[in-house]
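Is it possible to get an amino acid sequence alongside its tokenized fold?
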Amino acid sequence: MIFVVAALEEECLGLVGRWGLKLELSVHGTPQKIYSGTRFGTSIKVVVTGVLQHNAVSMLSKLLIQGIPRAVVNFGCVGAYEGRGLRIGEAFFVAACHQYDVDFQTEIAWYTRPFLLQTADLGVRRDVVCTTGSRFSLGQPGCDCEDMELYGLASLASAHEIPLYSVKYVANYCNEDGPKDFERNVVTARAAGEGVATRLVDMLCRKGKL
């Protein structure tokens, strides 16, 4: 079993269609949904959690009660920091994630620490550092981009010793035009990310691990 976790349905509908998945669950009054099916004999669930870490963690936690997956793949868009070499529409693996709005530079403050993620050699960047927060920023030291869910997912996956991959694509830069660019690009910029995510999931389904 493999879980593919996205915050927004707009981010993952292309994968749902490409993989021929069916709607299994829609949580009334929320954006949370589960699409399910099989690929190369392996059960696949695409999980739409809603935005922010608490939604992602609570949704995934409920699924983990039912069974531990072979791997979790986080898929979705990020805001890229200008000058860090990322382009709109570019897809990549996140190598490490941070938490920026409580990330104090001490060893004891609230036990915030970076998490290292799994990557695969699929011809895209594997060295990107993503930081997670509940607000937008213009840049964080040592990081290339930001999202709003990955750190929480990484913490949960680490606690359960589940391999976590994160395939991201750039929908906007973190500047004054970011919100407008996000709305325009969240769907149209996802094609490269879908290709990487599909190759990754196919490899996981066929081989069990990379």
